[in-house]
Amino acid sequence: MTKQQDIWIVGPETVRMLELGHPWVLADAHTKKWPTGQAGQTIELCDGQGRFLATALLDPQDRIVARVLSRKRIRLEKPWLVKRLQAAITLRQKHADLNESDAYRLVNGEGDGLPGLTIDRYGDYLMIQLYSAAWRPHLKLVTQILQDLLSPLGIYEKQRPQKTRELEAAGESKIYGRLLAGSAAPQRLEVRENGLNFLVSLEQGLNSGLFLDQRRNRADLMKRVEGKRVLNLFSYTGAFSVAAAASGAALVTSVDASPGYTEWARANFGLNRINPKRHEFIVGDCLTVLGELQKGKKRYDLILMDPPSFSTTARNRFTTRGGTSDLVAAALPLLNDGGLLIASSNHQKVDLADYLKELRRGALQGGSELRVISLFGQPEDFPYPTTFPEGRYLKYAVCVKD
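The chain above was modelled as a monomer; its predicted structure follows.
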């Protein structure tokens, strides 16, 4: 183990970023000169003159070689970690609307001063995800503190392998979750969001089956759909579809390339006592299906598209950058005049301005005008520092077709 007194000097550009409050140190020519260290080691970052800048968590093999824990000298030990975790819990209790939800984010990495670490609550269970190997040596301590603070029935870790986008596109059945403490959850665990019930998996797949960062946006959708015909593209396990059907939509058509996720969506309908036979489920590539629906002269009052940032089917490969405009152009002919197009993206590398350009390009291709009436991001349990623009990744635009 490298000693604490070793000097970890960062270059002028990194000094500037750290002084602006950014929590990452990216690998560069200066970090290549660092002493040999191990993932999970706490280090003191200094400028070229030896001036202390921050205490950080080292991850020498990653592109982000260090993540700032504090602008002060601290030790990553139980008292400090208890304080950070308790602060995260308190923030949710004070500021998040969770009255009818027991599935939400408890710790959001950089947004809670614990960069590279997320913790989600699913009912009586917790799910930890490590976005940096630097947290691996501290996982046991994190688990013990969570048991002390919250007494969950069980705590899981869901692994974050490399090339997650490609793996997610390939299938949903592989086991990525493992039980760290407590008792095992059911294979399909029932949780609650906005007063509705959903099935999640803490073991199978890279994701649980419910994207928690869309909770507030689903609540907004529920106010807009009564009596409407709704088309949900990239419907995944049907959370938006269930929210629409439960709120009085006349018809909900759910489209997804995965038969497994489509069956999961049907199960979520049944869980909420909504007859899935009164609605439509289509397995197929979304762009191809849009063409078929247009040939069938189908029309909708609301079209929702929340694609993954990357997906592959036998016919098409979709990416948010460039793919969104084609999707919008293909969807607009199916949307009634005055209808709503809701477009969402969680792609961190596409900022809001660029995303709106994609929507504009799609509207021009589709020969329509789109007016944005609402713009949302992630809810209160997904906070991010103002000094960390990467933390504002979710874009959710509600547009009217003219």
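Residues 311-318 have pLDDT under 50 and may be disordered.
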